[in-house]
Design brief:
alpha+beta; 24 strands; globular; binds adenosine monophosphate; binds glycine
């Protein structure tokens, strides 16, 4: 089989590597791919947002299966365009992608189908939003409605901070803002293979969203991750499947937005049980980089079976994975590009490229999140030591990282 992975980040690097390991696959293509993927996949110079050229390429090369990484490609309707041409693709339609691309869409469905989540109101004007924030008081959470790469959310601990977030959100014309109750508890990511009402859970990962140690600083796309998560027992996972993931997949069908692809539940274990923080219409990043290396089942075979509405029992490596993101100076507010990176070939574990490119013969930084060093070991403590030992082998004076990935669960 020929498999095409759309995207160029660490998540796509992990998706492509999982496809490459499949016994069913002869050749993996990545569009546009990255220098890490080019070690085992054929990178094609087509942007992940150039839907027409992606379709033409898949037709010309007779690609048997396409797997979509980024939400931006999904939001542009890449799945709709492939399906129109009879091409097999694993991902949600533009319509179903709204579960991520509109917080209001997701919250309305959760409310209608009693899927546990924070209480909320949606606003399209600043005055009403300010009045609501003043009435509710802090802490409170302000979420801009569209796709924000994990950055449109402010968890405000003071009234001043929340009013500032409302001001910023409404400085963007026609913005819609969801304001919700602040939840407290233990966050985790549950990602499922989904096709309509077939929902197959993967193992749990925990992301570290804040930019600095001790969960300080603004939210990012994710600064590090590990899997599995000891605190999240099989009973808790079953509860999350029964009350969140399966009901959501069914609700999407019921509401006329059937979902195919990776459905990502951003969940929180609170004193009042599991609550949904958000849904994403794709694999998590960096969740993919720690979950997929533990999957022992044939990744492509699982996707084909799920798309055929068959249920599958997944096999997992019992070892623990832990990944440390190396990000560019200034991230998430800004990022520096073009800084030379050395030592990536010296690591003992695995390095996924999140934002790199080749500049002449040098690997250089090319984004906010640049690399993730992932280690596998028998214990979380050992995986931590190994992943950080590898981080120290990578030299680049424009990168920084958190020092406490996984510490909360040790
Ligand atoms: P989201 O983009 O919705 O996942 O939000 C980003 C991060 O903000 C989440 O991973 C949480 O850490 C935090 N967050 C979002 N919503 C809430 C909430 N209602 N209560 C507490 N924290 C939240
Ligand atoms: N790591 C969080 C996300 O992919 O949204």
């Amino acid at each position: 089989m020929k498999v095409l992975v759309i995207g160029k980040g660490g998540r796509e690097h992990a998706l492509a590597h999982a496809a490459y390991k499949s016994n069913l696959v002869d050749c993996v293509y990545a569009a546009p791919g990255n220098p890490g993927m080019s070690k085992f996949a054929q990178c094609v110079n087509i942007s992940d947002s150039d839907v027409d050229r992606l379709v033409s390429f898949a037709k010309e090369e007779k690609i048997d299966l396409t797997i979509v990484g980024p939400e931006a490609s999904l939001s542009l309707g890449v799945v709709d365009a492939f399906k129109k041409e009879g091409l097999k693709i694993f991902g949600p339609t533009k319509d179903a992608t709204q579960v991520e691309s509109s917080k209001d869409f997701a919250k309305k469905i959760m409310a209608k189908y009693n899927i546990p989540t924070a209480t909320y109101e949606t606003f399209d004007n600043k005055e009403d939003a300010i009045a609501y924030v003043k009435e509710q008081g802090a802490p409170i959470v302000i979420k801009e409605d569209g796709l924000k790469a994990g950055k449109g959310v402010t968890v405000a601990s003071t009234l001043e901070e929340s009013l500032e977030a409302v001001e910023i959100a409404f400085s963007i014309p026609n913005n819609k803002v969801v304001i919700e109750e602040c939840l407290f508890g233990f966050e985790f990511s549950l990602i499922c293979f989904v096709c309509d009402d077939v929902v197959i859970p993967m193992q749990i990962a925990q992301d570290h969203k804040c930019v600095y140690d001790g969960d300080k600083g603004p939210n990012t796309g994710g600064m590090g991750c590990y899997s599995p998560v000891k605190k999240i027992t099989p009973e808790i996972i079953q509860d999350a499947m029964d009350h969140v993931m399966i009901p959501m997949a069914k609700a999407m069908m019921e509401e006329g937005h059937p979902f195919t692809g990776f459905l990502y539940g951003g969940l929180m274990l609170t004193e009042k049980g599991i609550k949904t923080i958000e849904f994403n219409a794709r694999f998590g990043d960096p969740e993919a980089e720690v979950i997929l290396p533990r999957l022992q089942s044939d990744f492509v075979d699982v996707i084909l079976k799920v798309m055929n509405h068959e249920t599958v029992e997944l096999q997992w490596d019992p070892q623990v994975t832990l990944g440390v993101v190396m990000a560019s100076e200034g991230y998430p507010a800004s990022s520096t590009k073009g800084a030379i990176i050395e030592g990536v070939d010296q690591v003992d574990g695995f390095v996924y490229h999140m934002g790199t490119k080749m500049d002449h013969d040098h690997l250089v930084t090319d984004g906010g999140r640049v690399l993730i060093s992932v280690a596998k070991a028998d214990t979380l403590e050992e995986a931590y030591e190994k992943a950080y030992a590898d981080v120290k082998k990578i030299q680049c004076d424009k990168l920084f990282y958190r020092n406490d990935i996984g510490k909360k669960d040790m």
